[in-house]
Structure formats: structure tokens, C-alpha cells
Amino acid sequence: MAWIKSYKSPNYGPRISEDGNEPKINMLVLHYTGMSSHSLSLEHLCNPLSKVSAHFLLDEKGNTYQLVATKNRAWHAGISSWRGIKDINSHSIGIELSNPGHDFGYRNFPDPQIDALIRLSKELINTHPIPPRNIIGHSDVAPGRKIDPGELFPWEQFASEKIGIWPKPHSIKSKTYKDVIISKMLSSYGYDTENNSLKDVISAFQRHFRPKCFDGIADDETISILSRLLKSVAEN
Length: 236
Ligand SMILES: [Zn+2]
Known about the structure:
By secondary structure, the protein is an alpha/beta fold. It folds into 2 domains: 156 residues, Peptidoglycan recognition protein-like (Lysozyme-like); 57 residues, PGBD-like superfamily/PGBD (Muramoyl-pentapeptide Carboxypeptidase, domain 1). The chain is built from 9 helices and 8 strands. Strand 4 and strand 5 form a beta hairpin. Helix 7 runs parallel beside helix 9. The structure holds zinc ion (ZN). The site of zinc ion has 4 residues, from loops.
């Protein structure tokens, strides 16, 4: 990928499998850096003392830096879980987007950055078996602990480029579900409802799929979106 600038981060190891076979790379995890500047983020992700990295880092102008080879296990997800997989780092490609984040002035991801991310994601989806449902945010795999890339990330636009998944338009039907059912539904989509509070998981779900309000309350619209999503993944 000729447009990519190469930078070396020492913060990686070999991908680890559960069964001795080479682990499948079948997830794409998106992050924001949450730091005040791009150069600080680049320094941090390449500093051996930080012990964190990602495979790619995209600045707000759309420049793409590769920090770790995709065959290696970059250290980006931490304690996390998706669809029963706990070692997300061994199964995923991690992409960091420069953005100050909620601590330093969270702002829209500029078009050049998103365009570059679409280009990179398409390339990665073409070369690895990554299903739409496994294109997720850090907050999806670590509810309650992480909130990036956050509610301003354009998931809907991404899905229109066939990257990730977005529920079809829906009519809101009023139906009351018990917490235990909502928890089961979220878990069958991929969220870890065992090790996180239900409120944190609902909030993570909303931040991704209903970003206008992510208060962690399973209102009718949230349940309707969740039902739609489950239906669409069952159909595919
Ligand atoms: Zn993150």
C-alpha cells in the first residue's frame, strides 16, 4: 500500500491462538487517540515505555501511518471481549484516529481522515476475512472502560460504503422487554454482558448504533434497533 507512511512501533508481539493454529484476523477495531496532538500520539504509540500501539494511525489530514505489521499482534484493545473472543489483539487489526477525544476537546472526524480510513478499511476487508459485524469500536469490546471512537464516528456513512453494519430504517414498536432478555440480545450480537454492567453495555451499543442519546437506558428505539440488527445478521 504505497500511500502509507511506515513508522516503527516496538509495542507488539506474535499473535496467539487458542488452538495452536494461526489465529484468524477477523476483526477491525477503531479507536481515537485521545491526545492533544497527532505528533504526541505518534510518539506515544512508538514509545517502548507506553506499551501501547496500533497497526495504523491516521492523522486529521488523512495521512496514514503503519506502525506495526498486520501479521503481528499490536497492543491496542486491552481487556476486552467480542462474540466470546477475549484476546481481541490476536484476532484484530487496530486503527487509531487522531482526535483529541473527550478529555481534550472531542470533535468531528474531518473528511480527509474518514476518506483515508474508508480506503484503508476496504483494502483490509479485501485481504482478511473480516465480516461487517466485526468492524467495531473500542467501546464495543470494552464497555464501561472505553468510549472511543465515540458518538461522532460516522458508522452510518461507513456502512453505506459496505464497511460495518447499520440497521435498516425501522418503525418503533413499543414493547417492553425484561433486562434479562435485553442482556441476552446484546450478548448474542457480540457484547460481553457477563463482565460489564447492563447499563454500560447498553450505553456502548447506543454510542455505536444510536449516537444521539447514549444514556444506557433501553428505550423503545434502542430495542427496536437492536432487534433489527439481530434480524439482519441472522439473514446474512
Ligand atoms: Zn481505544
